[in-house]
Amino acid sequence: MPRKSNKSWGGRNGRGNAPSEEKHYFGHDDRLGRNNGGPHLEGTRPRVSFKTLRPNRELSRNIALASLDEDIPMTGNSNNNTRQTRQVFMTTNTRDRDRRERMWQRTIARGRNSPLPNRNFNGGQSGSRLQTLPIGESNWYRISIPYGHKYEKDYILRTLLSYMAPEVFIPIMYKVMGNEASFYVDDHKTASALLKCDRKITMTDGFKIQVRAKPGFPQCEIDDKLKERLKQAMSKRYVQETNALDLSKFHRDPDLVGEYFCALFRPAMLMTVLDIVGEHIPTLEALNLEGNKLQNIDRLSVLNKKFSNLKILYISDNKIKDIHQIDAIKDLKLEELKLIGNPVCNKYKSRQNDYISDVRKRFPRLLRLDGTELPRPIVFDVVDDAAKVPLSQRMFVADAKAQEIASQFLQQYFTIFDSENRQPLLDAYDEHACFSMTITTSHNNKLNGYLMENRNLFRIYDTARRQKLLKHGRLPVVSFISEMPRTRHFLDSFTMDIALVTQAMMFITITGYFQELDNKEQPIRHFNRTFIIVPEGGGYCIRNEQLHISQPPEAQLKQLNQQLNSQPILNSQSETPPTLLPQTSTEPAKPILAELSEDVKQQMTMTLSQQTNMNLEWSLKCLQETQWNYNNALSAFQEFFKRGQIPSEAFTK
Known about the structure:
Layout: H1 57-67, H2 79-91, H3 94-110, H4 124-131, E1 141-146, H5 153-164, E2 172-177, E3 180-185, H6 188-195, E4 212-215, H7 224-237, E5 238-239, E6 244-246, H8 267-280, E7 286-288, H9 303-306, E8 312-314, E9 336-338, H10 343-346, H11 352-362, E10 368-369, E11 372-373, E12 395-396, H12 400-417, E13 429-439, H13 448-451, H14 463-469, E14 471-472, H15 474-483, E15 487-501, E16 506-516, E17 524-536, E18 539-550, H16 554-564, H17 598-612, H18 616-625, H19 630-643
Parallel strand pairs: 6-7, 7-8, 8-9, 9-10, 12-15, 13-18
Antiparallel strand pairs: 1-3, 1-4, 2-3, 5-6, 10-11, 13-14, 15-16, 16-17, 17-18
């Protein structure tokens, strides 16, 4: 997927010429101008002004003084009233005049009876309310206007905006119920500014508008009608050129705020919106969720399932407090992320390198963080989709001929190893063969039977003991193997790797499970055996072998037991002939061991007789017909016995 960091912002409003440091993937068409985050109202916003010409100082003085004399009627600014005021001044003695002068000065200082609205006046009932306006936990406030039903919505909103300027607000879910108009705002500062308007604005009918504010949270039911409106609003926010969707400050969308409260920090609303986007834009590459008051982003874990192509995510200016919260989206293969403006970023003010490191631990592909280019990631830190790790296989063999040789050799080896007599394995080892055994020491209590022969070089420093635990020669090796507990190996659990094949040798590694039969509990063990086999005579023999035994975890044992219920094992009377490893041919396997001695053939005959209950004559005949391949002989017996084609004299002893 090409990087989207080089895309221009593009859009339908001619935003392509934005500065390069701010790449507007999400430049959608709102149809109406935003005016720096202000409300989206039709037409231009008239500025209501309450400023009047400052009255003549002498006139203000005369009116203020006249208002203190209850005997003088106040009928406005008529000439008659002016004459009466002058008469008061002429008939008042000096002491009264001085007293009235002082009272006038105090009146002017307080602004009493002033015809001008005092923009900075916070006293009285309104001031008390401002001081006690609580900060709600959700930071949402319900603004109510008593008797607001008398005025048009636009008139009330423009009047409030003009008085509050330069403060602005977005009214959400404006409604009129009875005599009261109400709406919601999403900020304490905005609610406080609106509260300052209480009884400060005189409407055209002379009524002073009242404003009330209290913490409140709007409610909105999600129904089919709302979903259709959501689709329409999001279609205008989608930028097809960059395959980007801008859901920033979605609760303020001008097409929705009038009737609905579409806050994405509400889990139900967030999932509804993401479901719609996932249905219509499953290939989305860039998503902007800035300014949605997101605090718990666990629900964003669905982004990885819904949008596998998502490379760019903006979640800045939300309420994410801890870096571990973004673990919910760490499966996204992001190339660009915006997280700035969240409380979590304040924790890294003096630790910018730690911030980048902690974010990149979650997103190793990240190339751009908070608008800043990051150093290119180290290649081995990023998994390349084009270089996926191949699926695991039970066999790793580069040479088909080597696979055939190794499969047949090991098939005969484990057939004899699981028999009651392991002496025939003398012909499987070279005269100068070496053998060593180790165990996993953390399971000493369960592997005590092997502890005394454990040749762990990290724990045994005595050179003599090291030498003693290393078995040299054919006889010591087979003698040690013969003393090990009787076993049966689970062939379907085997894996085989042939790491090296030359004309002089073959390096083979086998892993799998076996069961100890001498133990009453018959425990299951895991093993890893490494063989180096070399050509000898007409076949191969073992020059070097290392055996490691460990105790499987309980979870693996449980899984293995479930598998064994339906899979064949060596030395069983299963109807399905067991095979150690897949064969490369349907023809009977030829013996690969060096020519079997008469003693080995005799032992194989006796073992087959004991296992099949046939007499020695028929057991010998069966082995000869299968060219002394014990496994094939046992499989042939089982097949013919199942068909009922073995004569009764074969069982006469």
